């Protein structure tokens, strides 16, 4: 079994050798030092304009290798692999797209995209944030800071989406005793508000795993746990959630995020 350092070097070398790849990075909790013993390993291979996943598939690592674009949007594909007994994610990243999204973010422009495993979806600037928090292993990559324009523009957009979701839940779900729909609306609004809070602080978000902790919104768990099919209870908890989320902007940054 390779040591962690040898393992990272081995994977980086193999990825960097693939046709079209110009840089390789290590991201996620492993790059930031916040990983657990069973955390997976997140690598990204950067190419410009074209990459053929068949090259990665030909390496022979067991797992699933997607085609370009199969994950949709800026998060355009990757692989779930097992390498030396370790769970490894490999993300495909087109540098031409990254440069465009960075230029957009610097002007305070972004769009929202749905993505599997993300309740609130993702902002298009997420792939720029990956660069900011990752460790470059091979090649050269930019290290962007959080754009000042985005600190102003993004928070009200996220908060507006959260507010609309809660209003709809209050009007359409609560009176009908819809527990599941209400729980979904509350969870989504919490994630959206967390995006708003971290954007206002100038902190990058790359996934939702620690998003509520980072925004200080873990108390939303108690709100959701109190839901019952009683319409009055649902209405009360939606109102309680609104109070928590609307006042959350005064929270101090969480340490370790």
From TrEMBL:
Domain of life: Bacteria
Keywords assigned: Transferase
Keyword Transferase: yes
SUPFAM superfamilies given in the database record: Nucleotidyltransferase (SSF81301)
GO MF annotation list: nucleotidyltransferase activity
InterPro entries cross-referenced by the UniProt entry: NT_sf, Polymerase_NTP_transf_dom
Ranges where the Polymerase nucleotidyl transferase domain occurs: 12-68
Protein name according to UniProt: Nucleotidyltransferase domain-containing protein
Species this chain originates from: Nocardia speluncae
Lineage, broadest ranks: Bacteria, Bacillati, Actinomycetota, Actinomycetes, Mycobacteriales
């Amino acid at each position: 079994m390779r040591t962690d350092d040898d393992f990272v070097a081995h994977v980086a070398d193999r990825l960097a050798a693939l046709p079209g790849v110009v840089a390789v990075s290590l991201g996620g909790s492993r790059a930031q030092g916040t990983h657990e013993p069973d955390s997976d390993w997140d690598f990204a291979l950067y190419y410009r304009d074209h990459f053929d996943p068949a090259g990665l598939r030909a390496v022979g690592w067991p797992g699933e290798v997607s085609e370009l674009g199969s994950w949709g949007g800026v998060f355009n594909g990757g692989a779930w692999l097992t390498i030396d007994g370790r769970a490894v994610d490999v993300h495909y990243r087109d540098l031409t797209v990254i440069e465009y999204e960075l230029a957009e973010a610097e002007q305070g422009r972004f769009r929202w995209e749905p993505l599997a495993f993300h309740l609130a979806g993702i902002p298009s600037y997420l792939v720029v944030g990956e660069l900011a928090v990752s460790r470059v292993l091979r090649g050269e990559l930019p290290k962007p800071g959080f754009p000042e324009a985005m600190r102003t523009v993004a928070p009200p957009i996220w908060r507006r989406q959260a507010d609309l979701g809660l209003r709809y839940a209050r009007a359409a779900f609560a009176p009908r005793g819809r527990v599941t729909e209400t729980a979904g609306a509350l969870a989504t609004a919490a994630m959206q508000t967390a995006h708003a809070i971290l954007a206002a602080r100038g902190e990058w978000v790359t996934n939702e795993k620690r998003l509520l902790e980072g925004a200080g919104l873990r108390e939303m768990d108690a709100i959701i746990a109190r839901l019952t099919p009683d319409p009055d209870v649902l209405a009360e908890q939606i109102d309680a959630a609104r109070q928590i989320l609307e006042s959350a902007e005064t929270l101090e940054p969480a340490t370790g995020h």
